[in-house]
Write a structure and sequence with these properties.
alpha/beta; Aldehyde Dehydrogenase, Chain A, domain 1; Aldehyde Dehydrogenase, Chain A, domain 2; 2 domains; six-stranded mixed β-sheet; 15 helices; oxidoreductase; aldehyde dehydrogenase (NAD(+)); Ald_DH_N
């Protein structure tokens, strides 16, 4: 049993004023792993004060100083690869496969922030004026549990590149993962107060970050519902917000696609991170006359998506993070059945032999229409809905008929055709014939998938305020 009873403020591990504890439960066995002591409003205010003081000097650092800080953090994280992968599989139930990808993603965040600093010009000329891109101030970073340290690295590295200081509120369920990254950040020896981390509940620590006038910007990743609460509160002090929210990503397979490749890819897109991914391709759009072929390909391929112990390198689908999340996914599977969709694979209940953990059977529904709740709402579990279409135009229409717009997928053997279809999808990222991540390209959502973008120049500029110096001649 581990007890995490420190938060991090102004360069030091400190005991929170908050006295409440939260139990950390293994998603794989439902046994207690440990406890975390939660910070309260006062702790959050102390963290914000430290970040505010640090901003006075950190905002004036040069690009080369910031590059050095980013390199320092990266080199410490590089020494602890196994620890990062192990703690993510143990505490979150992320598969070894996903945790390894997530670890690489953490390191790449620092590379791309360094790249940006090497190429970005903080002083520009616009019209006849000088425009200075200045660090925005103290940034509140609020993140979910599904890739906790990945989000800390991508947001913190951008904040550092911009010259901002930060207060980070991870999910209370990620406390052991947070402890590990904290140890690394501490070892990297940044100036005191540049990053502060407060474990705690959303309604307490997150709410104070959203309300406090000394926070200039919030970078939030999480559900659309909580994103709306944060945005409403933030507007009172006119905080800038970057909101990375939910998704219900469409995956269009065009009739000329190589289905033997596109279907395994589609299952991979739907079940990535055990389905607990905002970018998961959970609506699969296929030509009506290919349904039988798709059904048999899915039956053939789905056994490759091994469900079980996340530590096993062959496992593709691990447990849901919590019992609550397990129940939510079960409720959606029941909803799909009630709505008249047909289960092609998976279904209700736990897979045999995995009764102790929060395991869900990877589930594929056919006979789904785009008005059903299973086609409209984010389930956040390994559940795929297959919807048929008659024409390319109809496929595009269904793909765009959603309140979300985070990511989409298109497969075709004709790259020009795929490009034309991809260019008509209202989503922040469209993946053509594959799944990739470009850390220099923007990431974020259309519609209720969010506000703003992360990564690349657009992501960096979300941490900067332009100041135009007008000197009339
Ligand atoms: P969540 O929205 O419940 O919580 C996210 C964070 O917000 C947590 O740290 C939580 O404590 C905090 N929070 C909760 N209430 C708050 C409040 N009133 N004020 C301030 N902060 C508050 O999300 P979750 O359940 O942890 O994660 C799953 C959700 O995250 C899914 O909807 C998923 O789509 C989304 N997500 C989005 C992206 C993206 O990049 N767009 C990536 C991953 C996950």
């Amino acid at each position: 049993m581990k007890t995490i009873d420190k938060i991090y403020i102004n360069g030091e591990f400190v005991t929170p004023n908050g006295t409440e504890y939260f139990n950390l439960i293994s998603p794989t066995t439902n046994e207690e792993l440990g406890q975390v002591r939660l910070g309260n409003t006062e702790d959050t205010q102390n963290a914000i004060e430290a970040a505010k003081n640090a901003f006075k000097t950190f905002s004036k650092t040069t690009a080369s100083e910031r590059i050095q800080y980013l390199k320092n953090i990266k080199s410490v994280i590089e020494k602890r690869k196994d620890d990062f992968i192990n703690i993510m599989t143990e505490e979150y139930g992320g598969t070894f496969q996903f945790a390894s990808v997530s670890y690489d993603y953490m390191l790449k965040s620092f590379d791309s922030a360094i790249n940006l600093l090497n190429s970005y010009s903080f002083i520009k000329t616009m019209g006849e004026s000088e425009v200075q891109m200045t660090p925005i101030g103290v940034v509140g970073i609020i993140i979910p549990w599904n890739s906790s340290n990945g989000f800390i690295c991508s947001k913190l590295s951008t904040a550092i590149a911009a010259g901002c200081t930060t207060v980070i509120k991870p999910s209370e369920m990620s406390a052991q993962q947070t402890q590990l990254i904290l140890e690394c950040l501490h070892e990297a020896n940044l100036p005191k107060g540049v990053f502060n981390i407060v474990n705690g509940l959303g309604e307490i620590v997150g709410a104070e970050i959203s309300r406090n006038p000394d926070i200039a910007k919030i970078s939030f990743t999480g559900s659309t519902n909580v994103g709306k609460i944060i945005a409403k509160e933030a507007v009172n002090t006119m905080k800038r917000v970057t909101l990375e929210l939910g998704g219900k990503s469409p995956n269009i397979i065009l009739d000329d696609a190589d289905f033997s490749k596109a279907i395994p890819l589609a299952l991979g897109a739907a079940f990535m991170n055990s389905g607990q991914a905002c970018i998961a391709g959970t609506r699969l759009l296929i030509p009506e006359d290919k349904l039988n072929q798709v059904k048999s390909l899915i039956k053939e391929t789905i056994p490759n998506f091994i469900t079980g112990d996340p530590k096993n390198p062959n496992t593709a689908v691990g447990p849901m993070v919590s019992e609550k999340q397990f129940n939510r996914v079960q409720d959606y599977i029941q909803t799909g059945i009630n709505e008249g969709a047909e289960i092609l694979s998976g279904g209700l209940g736990k897979p045999e032999g995995l009764e102790n953990g929060n395991f869900v059977k990877p589930t594929v529904f056919i006979n789904v229409n785009n008005h059903m709740r299973i086609a409209r709402e984010e389930i956040f579990g390994p559940v795929l809905s297959i919807i048929t279409y008659k024409t390319e135009e109809e496929a595009i229409e269904i793909a765009n008929d959603t309140t979300y717009g985070l990511q989409a997928y298109v497969s075709s053997s004709d790259s020009k055709r795929a490009y034309t279809v991809a260019s008509q999808i209202n989503a922040g990222r469209v993946q053509v014939n594959g799944i990739g991540h470009d850390p220099m390209a923007p990431f974020g959502g259309f519609k209720q998938s969010g506000i703003g973008r992360e990564f690349g120049t657009i992501g960096l500029e979300a941490y900067l305020e332009p100041r135009a110096l007008i000197q009339p001649k």
